[in-house]
From TrEMBL:
CDD domains, A to Z: fer2 (cd00207)
GO MF, any single term: oxidoreductase activity
Gene3D superfamilies reported for this sequence: 3.10.20.30, [2Fe-2S]-binding domain
Alphabetical keyword list: 2Fe-2S, Iron, Iron-sulfur, Metal-binding, Oxidoreductase
Protein name: (2Fe-2S)-binding protein
Boundaries of every 2Fe-2S ferredoxin-type domain copy: 1-75
Domain of life: Bacteria
Length: 148
């Protein structure tokens, strides 16, 4: 099957029910998207499909055929993604960094959907888990991006 990932079409061989995460990492070789829990709870595997954030660890690859898949590797391809990454660096959000690709994807998806989100919007969107507890730095970065 063909998958469009970050603007490049890849021909992959995978069972229809194979999680998108494993196709992205193992078949395509983009390892920025992480495996965390495998239950769509932690968000380390977050990617955007047609601009909508989803957990790739539970998304069957068959369901994303013909759609635009965006991973962390392409997040800085537009100005919003560059701004999100710059805020992450400015506020020194990352500690171990394992969850941060999913955190950046979540923040970018939120700001694409709602350029000036409320605190409630931010709380609802930024639900990814961070083992290091960088939630205050994440909130500070997202608040700044939201113009708060």
């Amino acid at each position: 099957m063909e998958l469009n990932v970050n603007g490049t079409v890849y021909e992959v061989e995978a069972d229809a029910d194979t999680p998108l995460l494993w196709v992205i990492r193992d078949d395509i070789g983009l390892t920025g998207t992480k495996y965390g829990c495998g239950l769509a709870q932690c968000g380390a595997c977050s990617v955007m499909v047609d601009g909508v954030l989803l957990r790739s660890c539970v998304t069957p690859v068959e369901g994303v055929k013909g759609k635009q898949i965006r991973t962390i590797e392409a997040i800085e391809d537009d100005e919003l993604g560059k701004r999100v990454v710059a805020a992450w660096v400015k506020h020194q959000v990352a500690q171990c960094g394992y969850c941060q690709s999913g955190q950046v994807m979540a923040a970018t998806a939120l700001l694409q959907r709602i350029p000036k989100p409320s605190q409630a919007d931010i709380a609802a969107a930024m639900t990814n888990l961070c083992r290091c507890g960088t939630y205050n730095a994440i909130k500070t970065a997202v608040d700044e991006l939201a113009g708060a």
